[in-house]
Amino acid sequence: MPLGKRTDCGDAKYSGVQVAFASDITASLQEHLDAGFDFVTAPLINPEAVCKSIPADSIQLPYAHDDILLVAPRYSNQVVGIASAWREPDASDAGEKRLSGAQALRLELEWASHMSLQACILPMPQGRSCAHLACVLNQVINGLSNTSMWLKVPLRPAASTGTTVSAGDPWRAWNSVRSLCNHSSKLGALLEVQAEVPPLQEVLRWHGEPVKALLLPTNAFLTNKRGYPTLSRAHQELLTRFFQMGVQVVLSGESRHSAPSAAPATPAENGFPTPSGSGSASTVAAGNGVAAEVHPLQPYHEYLSYLFRRPPLPAGQEEMEIGYRDYLQVPLQPLQDNLELQTYETFERDTPKYTAYEEAIHDALLDRVPQSEAATRTTVLMVVGAGRGPLVKAALSAARRTERRLKVYAIEKNPNAVVTLHRLIAAERWEDQVTIVAVDMRSWRAPEQADILVSELLGSFGDNELSPECLDGAQRFLAPGGISIPCAYTSHLHPIASAKLWGEVQGYNDLEHYETPYVVKMHRFTPLSPPQPVFSFHHPTKDPHPDNARSTSLTFPRDGLPAALCHGLAGYFDTQLYGNVILSIHPQTHTEDMHSWFPIYFPLKEPLLCPAGAAIEAHIWRCSANHKVWYEWALTEPSVSAIHNPNGRSYFVGL
Amino acid sequence: MPLGKRTDCGDAKYSGVQVAFASDITASLQEHLDAGFDFVTAPLINPEAVCKSIPADSIQLPYAHDDILLVAPRYSNQVVGIASAWREPDASDAGEKRLSGAQALRLELEWASHMSLQACILPMPQGRSCAHLACVLNQVINGLSNTSMWLKVPLRPAASTGTTVSAGDPWRAWNSVRSLCNHSSKLGALLEVQAEVPPLQEVLRWHGEPVKALLLPTNAFLTNKRGYPTLSRAHQELLTRFFQMGVQVVLSGESRHSAPSAAPATPAENGFPTPSGSGSASTVAAGNGVAAEVHPLQPYHEYLSYLFRRPPLPAGQEEMEIGYRDYLQVPLQPLQDNLELQTYETFERDTPKYTAYEEAIHDALLDRVPQSEAATRTTVLMVVGAGRGPLVKAALSAARRTERRLKVYAIEKNPNAVVTLHRLIAAERWEDQVTIVAVDMRSWRAPEQADILVSELLGSFGDNELSPECLDGAQRFLAPGGISIPCAYTSHLHPIASAKLWGEVQGYNDLEHYETPYVVKMHRFTPLSPPQPVFSFHHPTKDPHPDNARSTSLTFPRDGLPAALCHGLAGYFDTQLYGNVILSIHPQTHTEDMHSWFPIYFPLKEPLLCPAGAAIEAHIWRCSANHKVWYEWALTEPSVSAIHNPNGRSYFVGL
Question: Which chain B residue is nearest to residue A635, measuring alpha carbons?
C-alpha cells in the first residue's frame, strides 16, 4: 500500500523491498505485498547458475521459474528485475566454452524487456568495464519500450568525498555510462544509501540526476527505546529530500528488529508521533483483530510511511505549482500576441505582486505631493499595458490611502482585455478618474504628460518580454522628472545540472529546441554555483538613443564542489519598483508567495562535464535587429560550446 | 604569377603580400602583381579612422576608396581584406557616442562579404573578448556565401611552448573561436610565422587545422653571401611542410634586401640552385632586356618560388593519389555487392601486393613439398574470391619458380569477373591447372580439400570486409594442417585531429554520417598518439564455433604533447600472409608502394578537446548479429562521448 496520500511526491509513495531469488516468486511477492510494500526487486536468475557460468550455446538463461508468465501483467507492475553481476568466464575455464558476461547480460536485459518489467537493476561496473557494460546497455536501450534500466550507484559517504579523489567518485562512473548511452531517458540511477550518511553536498548533486529509487539497507536503521526501527536525523533528512524529488525507496537486507507483538502497535505506540489526519494509512494489513503473524519487515514500512507523511502538505500556490514542475514552456510574447483570459486570471491572482505595486505607487505619491498640496495637486498616472485592470486598482487604492488626487490613463492594446476593463471601471464607478485608451502604446499620442508611468512588462529573465524597448518608447509620455514604476531591473544567471530539463529538450530531437529558452518551474535540478547579475536596465533613461543590446561574460567559481554535468543556465530577475519596494524571483531574495514568474532555462546542445572544483565560464548576449530581440549564449570553460541561437535563428522575440 | 607548376600543393602556388592601406588600391595591387605576387592583403579601413573611432550613428565606415567597386571581379580574386583591430570606445570618450568595437567589426566583415572578397583577415582577440569576437563572427559567418574568414594566430616559438603554459597557447584561443563558431567551414587560420622558428611538434599540430595561409615577415629572412634573402633551414622546412598541405604564403613587412642589379639575377645567380626543369617560372617580369626597376620584394618572391619548386614532384602511385586526398569514401562491401571493372583494374595494378602473395605461396610450397616429392606431389590451392585472376597468376608463378605441382581452384561469385577469368585461363592455356568455380564460396561444396587457401578479403581495417566470417566458412575446404594465406591480421587505431575530415562529415548534417567509418587518403591531419593494435584474427582457427565479436579499450598516452581537438580515430591493418611475408598499411611499417588500401576514419559526433598531456581513452567494438557485422566506438577520456552506431543503426556490413 502507498506510504501516504500526498500528491507532491509523485511515485515516491510506492515503496519496494529487495528479495532473494525465489523459485516461487509469486508467493514471495504476495508475502511482501502483505507487509505493506508495493513492489519487490528480485534477481532474474538463480545466483548459483551465475557462479557456474553458462555454456556458450545456451540461448536461454536459467530464469526464475516459468509460471511467472501466467501472471505477467501483475509481474510487470510489481517486480523490478535485478540483473546478475556477470563476470567474464575465466581463461582457466578450459574445455566447454562459456557465455561471455556481455552476452549473458544482453540476454538477461532482453528478458526483462520481454517481460515488460517496469525496470531492471544493473550492477555498477568497475573501471574500464564501464564502457563494455554501456555498449550492451546502449544497444538494449535503443529497443526498449516499457522497461527502464536502473544503474546501481553507491551514495558516497563523507569520508571518501572531496575534490581530489575523483577517481573514486561513483558519480563519474555513472556519468560515463549515461554519457556513453547518449543520455537516454530509459536510464536512471538506483542510489545505494550507506549506513554512514553522506554530506549534504553529495546529496544535492543527485537532485539534478534521474534518480529512480534509493536502496536503503536495514543496517542503516537505529533502534528506538521501544525496540522499533528508526533512522538518524541525517538519514531522515536524506529520505525526505528524495521523497520530495519523487524518488522511491527500496528496502534491502534482513530485519534487524523483531516486531514485539503479534497485534502490532500503532505508529504512536512505536514511539514516533502520528501526523495529524494520516493515522489510518499505517494500520497493518492484519488489522482484523485476528492475531496474524507480522512480517519482520513491516515495522520498517511503517516507519517509512511515517517519514513520508511527516512534512506538511503543500498548500495554496505551492500546491498549484506541483503540476508545473519541470514542465517547459516557451516564454510569452505579450507584445506580439494577445494574452488569453486564463492567463490574465492567473496573473491577477498574484496578490503579493500587486500589493508591492500599490506600495510603490503609495510611496511615490507621498514623495511627489506634499500633504499641503494633497487636495489641490492632481498626479497623472499612466498604466501602459493595463490588461484587465489590476494595476489601475492598485493605483486607485494607493491614492485613497494617501488621500492624493489621481488621474489614471489605462492603455491597453488587447481589445479583449479592454472589454473587461470597461466593465470594471463602470462597476466601480471610476469613470471620473480613469480614462481607457484602447491602442498600442507605441502608436498613441498622449493628450498630456504623465507624472508616473506604471507597467508590468517584465519576463522571467527581466528584459526578455521587451520591457526595455517598450518603456523607452513610452518614456515620451513621461513629464521631465517623472517616475517609472519599475525604475530598474536586473537579470541573474547560473549554471545548473538537470538531466530532467535537458532530457525534455532532447526529446524534441531538433536544433531549434536546443536554442530556445524555456520558462519552467525547476524542480529536479542542482545549482552548480550561485546566480550572478547579468543585464540591468533603468527607467527613465537619460540617453536619447538608448542601446538595449548587452553582452556579458560570467565566471562561476566552484571551489570545493564535486564534478558535475552542466545542462544549461537558469535565469531569474529582480526589479526595483520604487524606493525600497522590490520584487524578485532570485532564489535568495524571492518575494514571498509571488507566483507570476517561473525561472527561465537556457539549454546547451551538449551537456558539459565540469571536473571537481573547475570554474564555469558563460557568455550571454542580448542582440537586437529591426524587428526582433534575441539571446545568444555559450560556455567557454571548462570547455567550449558553440554559440547558441546565432542571429536568433531558432528563437527571438518579435518587436 | 604562381610560384611553380606543381599540382600536389593545391592553391599553395599562389602567394600574397601584405600591403599598407592605400587610397588607390588598384595601383597598389598592380605594383605587387608586377613583382610576382598573386594577391595582396590590405586593410579595408584607413587605420587613422580606427584610432579616432566612429560616431555611433554612422552606418558607413571610411572604407578604402569607392572606385574599387568598378573593378569588383578582379578585386574579389586578388584582394584579401584585413579587418581593423577595433577596440571598445573608452569610457572617457564622453560627449558624442562612439560605435562599439563589435558594431564596427560587423559592418566591416559585412562589407568584405558584400565585396565578395575571397577572404577577410581578423585579428586574434585577447582573453575574454574571444567570445565577443566569436559572437559577431558567428553571426556574419552564418550569412556568408563566397568569403572566408581568416583568424590571425601567432605560431608559438619554442621558448613559450611546453605543456604547462596552456594559458599562453594561441591554439587555445583559436580553438575557442572556432568551437564557438561551431566549426564553420568558412573559418580558417592565418598562421603568423615568427623570426624564431617553432619546434616541429608545434608545426605538426597545425596540419590537422584549416590553415589557409602563412604570414611570413621579411625579418624572418637571412641574407646569403650575394646579398639575397634566404631562409634558415628550419624555416625552409616549415614552408615546405605547409606548401604540401596546400597552404599559401603571404609576405609581410618592408624589404630588407636591396635588389643588387636592375637586370635581376636568375635564381642560380642569387646563390640558390635552380631545380631541374623549373627555371623559367622564376624569370622576373621585366625579363625583356629593358632595364626595368625591380620591385624591392621581388627577390623574396623568387626565393619562395625556388622553395616551392624544390621538392621532387610526386610520381607514380603518389601522383595518382593526389586527387583522393581527404576524400571520404564509404568502405566497399564486396561480399554484398559486386565490384566494378574499374575497381578490379585499380587493385590489380598493385604490384607490391601480388608480389608479396607470390612470395608467400612460394615459401608455403617449399615448406610443404620437399624437393624429393616435387615431381610427384600435387598441392591443391584454392583462391576464394579470385576476382579476375591476379592471385591465380601469382600462385602459378610461384609454382613455376618452385617447380612444384599445383592444382588451382578459382572460386568467384561475381559473374562479371568470371567472364574475364575464363578469358585469362584460355589465353594463358591454364585449363589443365585451373578450375573456375563460379559460385558464392558460402554455398560451394568442394570436390576435394585444399592444402592452401588463398584470399584477399581484407579491408582498410583488416576485418572490416568480413574476412573472418568468410574464412571461417571457407575453412571447411581446408585439409587438416592446411595453410591459410593470410594466416593472421591485426587492425590498428589512433586518435587524430583533422578539421578537414570532420568538416566533410559535418557537411552531411545528419547522424548517419557521423556514425559511418570512411576509407580516406588522409592528408590534412595530425596524429595525437601512435597507433595501437586493436583486433587480431588467425586462420585457420581451431575453434569449432569461432566468435568474431571483439571489444577493446585503448589508452593513448600524450605526455609532453600540446592541447588538441580530437576529431576521431584513424585505423590501419597489417597482415601476415605466410612466414615472414607481411603486408601493412600501418604508417610505421607500410609496405612500400602498395596502394590498394587507404586508412579508415571513424568520426566523432562532437570533436573532443584534449588538454596538453592528457591521455585519450578509446573503445571500439566489433559486433555481429544474424546478417550483419558493425563497429561501435566511443571515447571516455579526457571526456565521455556517446557510443557511436549502436546496433549498427547507421552503418553495417551485410553478411
Answer: B180
CB within 8 Å: A647 and B139: yes
CB atoms within 10 A of CB A467: 24
What pLDDT sits at residue B99? 74
Give the separation between CA A569 and CA A588, rounded to whole angstroms. 17
Res A72: pLDDT: 59
Asked if residue A441 belongs to a known ligand binding site, the reply is yes
* A57 to B134: CB separation less than 8 angstroms, yes or no: no
Looking at residue B174, its amino acid is W
Residue B149 has pLDDT above 80, yes or no: yes
Percent of chain B, pLDDT > 90? 65
Other CB atoms within a 10 A radius of the CB of residue A257 amount to 19
- Could you tell me what percentage of chain A is helix, strand and coil, using 3-state DSSP and rounding each to the nearest 5? 30, 25, 40
pLDDT at A335 over 60: yes
* Chain A residue nearest residue B643, CA to CA: A180
The CA distance from B46 to the nearest CA of chain A, in Å, is 27
Residue B511 contacts A, CB cutoff 8 Å = no
Nearest-by-Cβ selection for A606 from B134, B606, B646: B606
Between chain A and chain B, the number of residue pairs with CB atoms below 8 A apart is 115
Residue B278 pLDDT > 50: no
ipTM, interface predicted TM-score of the complex: 0.86
Query: Is B615 an 8 Å CB contact of chain A?
Result: no
What the block records as the C-alpha cell of B350 is 598493385
Is B135 within 8 Å of A621 when comparing Cβ atoms? yes
Domains in chain A: ranges and CATH: 10-284+291-313 (3.20.20.150), 341-456 (3.40.50.150), 488-654 (2.70.160.11)
Q: Which chain B residues contact residue A176 at CB under 8 A?
A: 636, 640
Name the amino acid, one letter, at A263.
Answer: A
Q: Is A625 on the interface with B (CB under 8 A)?
A: no
Distance CA B645, CA B602 (A): 11
Map grid coordinates 557511436 to a residue. Answer: B644
Task: Give the Cα separation of B213 and B38 in Å (integer).
Answer: 13
Report pLDDT for B90: 59
**Model pLDDT, residue A284:** 43
DSSP, res A505: H
Q: Which residues of A touch B622 (CB under 8 A)?
A: none
Active site residues of A: 456, 465
Q: How far is B126 from chain A (nearest CA, A)?
A: 14
Cell readout for A215 is 536502496
Residue of B nearest to A136 (CA): B646
Mean pLDDT of chain A: 88
E strand or H helix at A302:
helix A298-309
Q: What is the pLDDT of residues B326-385, one digit of tens each?
A: 999 987 777 777 788 888 888 899 999 999 999 999 999 999 999 999 999 999 999 999
* Region B555-583 average pLDDT: 97
Q: What CA–CA distance (Å, rounded) separates B295 from B284?
A: 10
Res. B45: pLDDT tops 90: no
- pLDDT, tens digit (0-9, with 9 covering 90-100), for B155-168: 987 655 444 444 47
B129 grid coordinates: 573578448
- B143 at interface of A, judged by CB pairs closer than 8 A: yes
User: Which residues are CB-neighbours of B584 under 8 A, at least 6 positions away?
Assistant: B572, B573, B574, B575, B590, B591
Radius of gyration of chain A (CA): 30
**CB B130 to CB A636 under 8 A?**
yes
Which residues in chain A are closer than 8 Å to B630, comparing Cβ atoms? none
pLDDT in tens, B4-32: 999 899 999 999 999 988 777 778 888 89
- In a mutational test of the A interface, the residue from B100, B133, B139 whose CB has the highest number of chain A CBs within 10 Å is B139
Please report which confidence band the pLDDT of residue B543 belongs to, taking 50, 70 and 90 as the band edges: confident
Residue B134 pLDDT? 93
**Residue A344, marked binder:** yes
